[in-house]
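Example complex used in Figure S2.
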Amino acid sequence: MKKKVLSLMLVSAMAASLFAGCGSDSSSQTEGESVDTSSELTWKIGGIGPTTGSAAQYGQGVMNAIQLAVDEVNEAGGINGYQISFNFQDDEADQQKSVNAYNTLKDWGMQILEGTVTSGACTAVAAETYNDRIFQLTPSASSTDVTSGHDNTFQVCFSDPNQGTVSADYISENNLATKIGVIYDSSDPYSTGVYQNFATEAANVGLEIVATEAFTSDNKTDFSTQLQKCKDAGADLLFLPFYYQEGSVVLTQANQMGYEPTMFGVDGFDGLLGVENFDVKLAEGVYLLTPFAADAEDEATQSFVSKYEEQFGGTPNQFAADAYDGIYILKAALESTDLTPEASNEEICDALIAAIQEVSYDGLTGNSMTWSDAGEVSKDPKAVIIQDGGYVSVE
Amino acid sequence: MGFLTYLINGLSLGSVYAIIALGYTMVYGIAKMLNFAHGDVIMIGSYLVFIGMSNIGGEQTGVMQVVKVVVCLAVSMIICAILGMVIEKVAYKPLRKATNLAVLITAIGVSYFLQNIALLIFGSNAVSFTSIISWQGISLAGGALKITGNAIVTIIVCIIIMVALMLFVQHTKPGQAMRAVSEDRDAAVLMGINVNATISLTFIIGSGLAAIAGALLCSSYPALTPYTGSMPGIKAFTAAVFGGIGSIPGALIGGLLLGIIEILAKAYISSQLADAIVFAVLIIVLLVKPTGILGKQIKEKV
Amino acid sequence: MNAYKKLNKSTQKLLINIVVIFAVYIVVTIMDASGNLSSLMRGLLVPVCAYSLVAVGLNLCVGYLGELSLGHAGFMCIGAFTSAFFSKAFQDTIPDVPRFILALIIGTAMAAIFGFLIAIPVLRLKGDYLAIVTLAFGEIIKNVITVMYVGKDSNGFHFSLKDQMSLGMELDGKMIINGAQGISGTPRQSTFGLAVLLLIVALIITHNFVNSRTGRAVKAIRDNQIAAETVGLPITKYKLTAFTLSAAIAGVGGVLYAHNINSLTATTNNFGYNMSIMILVYVVLGGIGSFSGSIIAAVVLTLLPEMLRGLSNYRMLIYSIVLIGLMLFNWAPSILKWRQQHGLKAILSKFNKNKEVQ
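Predicted assembly (1055 residues):
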């Protein structure tokens, strides 16, 4: 009896949830329709990234920045005379959920995808966009798996090999260190990707790696052991290919230990100075490779940063800057064609694949960016050093 | 000297696990449930201390600094205690007579709820938690061995809490009520003990301690996000089982051992496989002592 | 109809379940063919079946063996990675269909072997201690897979637990498992029809198991181990069988999952304790011991967060509140009592009684 009641309840709960689903479905549909009727046709650009879960800060940065860029473009008259409608879906940085988010966007009628934010999820979605012929531009997924074998995926950020190799070359050319320690996140595709390319190039240019230590996403509160081992091995430079959130902990703990090697981060370290309440004195002298610095003097960066801070609060990081550039790159590429939103996904995809390889774009994250047919961006990683709480370019 | 440094780091990490493990073990002992939301109460506690520390007054030194820390901690403890009580009343109490598994799942729901409400309130960006301990620590053996102030204070606080709790449980009326409820709930009712009040009290104490645990956790490992509590929560839960769940000294021993094993595994075996090694040791210990190091052997009645 | 009535009750239930699943399959296929199925739904069909399979496997363990396992995502992980590894490694040498069949067998068998090996020590423990040890095994599996590097070149396979460079591969080599980056480019072979078929097969196997001599023994052990021991049941053997079968079914779920997605990595959310807990939620919410309940709960809880996408930022918050609410609604004794008096069923029976009186 109890069981029957139970199953009955479950079924009714399911029905209720299905109705709830229908409700939200229809509401989003009407939303889309209202946009359609007001401005007739729009470009439907979708975005995917984690807005909940432990990678939420990266996804939210991307979502906000795209929104900002879309608003600006729409205000200035849109692309080829058509406005953009933008829809961003959460994927919790999980592959399966990312594919779900992608399918949701497809149902919405997405024509171009700017996403996803994280590498693992992006690789899964890239296979889908490739099959469906939807053009995909990822702001921040740096793995080569994302672009390899997919002619329709392009990156705004540096690829892993690019970052690792350039870092090793930079350290060797500038004689920054003789003994290098590496700490990386062995559970993260981005971090291991950069580390492996760094280690390969380091061997080529004759850098000595004296200690290689790892941490995992389940074990990233305490770095004292890894730091101690690098210290004991005599490393005078630490190569730290991971994100700034862990970066702030590593710097704090190294400081508590009294260990002061040269710290060298890659583009994930950008955003370090924006961590709320972080003692920027600890970051003094940290090198990082980044295409973007929130306190750069140029007008474009300053306008972006101030608008972002005003609208969403908090300093935008490089993810956000890449995402912001992404919309303008799409705009530049679309404007070099005479496409309208009436075109089919296939037409847009094929036209954009050709167009983006002709584009040379000056943005927040680099000047004269160009793209190869492999999908990788060509822009120069800039090495910057943190001095007096700000980034200073070193060349 | 390297070994000593690792040992002290391990003790410090272990002390934090131990304080968190206390929250699990007390609730388990008295309410017979795994409170998966405990790690997230810790996160809330850390945010409260963080907000207090960054909004009250300017830079203080000396005694004023200590007063500020104590006030922030006290406020955070009170709010966390209330939160713990409310969670118990709303989500767990209605299920007290249902199967243990049902409460476990509800606790997971509460854990998601706390994470997502924190995400909405505090945002997704990590904040850097300023250590509540401004003391730099001591250097021994001519600087070769450096013990941070965080480590020393964490270990001392952990021991104080442990001793205080033991005294409380052994020698006070409410403490005895707790032991009685833990031993046999139905008999406790017959003895005139207010079981509901006792369980509420357990949640209040456990959640209050979570605020301290959070402040200490984030003082040593300063990146604070809405998900900060979940992994240390799982680790501490493991520690509680390790030591024998339901036992207060067991939580201390389990926590300390887990911290030391984790650090030594990273230092001497492999930093990539540290998690696997910790869990492997846990499995071996449980196979030798199936109810944890200090756990009670429960005789099954026929 | 007479033949149906002759069957015992649980077989009747099984038949109803299979018919319902088959009906759902037909309806969904028709909807898909006529273009009425959204991409989201189409994309969710296989994952839902995969989660359902793992939930059925876990329910066998929780509901019939009476032991709480927090490591079933680990078995799913083993099934997923071994089968994807096989498919990727022999992508060019074995044709599609036999390769997938072999992958399915390998994935299932490996999950079963690991289940068996883990069960030997684990089943000596009880209750929450057993739960924590299964959680520990799940975490070990996940941790080891994220640091596993396997490549294949003209000299054969290379293996390392450190990094890609230490494999020492020739230039023509390709990575199969690339550490944290996992396996990418697994051939996509899971279809909804296949998933439904496997789900039905799993239901039949579990049904037969539960009602077999072994299954009845397992239930006897669950209800009273000491009594079962006294009558001379070989406890360990029965428990091992049940746990291994449970792990194998979870492995099948993993195989389906892996062959439905291009990029397979082992993270906390898809193969770690978060997933194990999620599957436990399906089992408890669906009703401990009820396989159809597990499937319904898996479907509902997978669809729910997708349906809530319209709420944007509040999505996961609402989801957690709904989860707590459903748990209270389904399990709280006071609410159950209220439902018995005022629920739909009670009203119906009252109505019937009134009719009888008239």
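Chain C has a mean pLDDT of 89. Chain C has one domain: 13-297.
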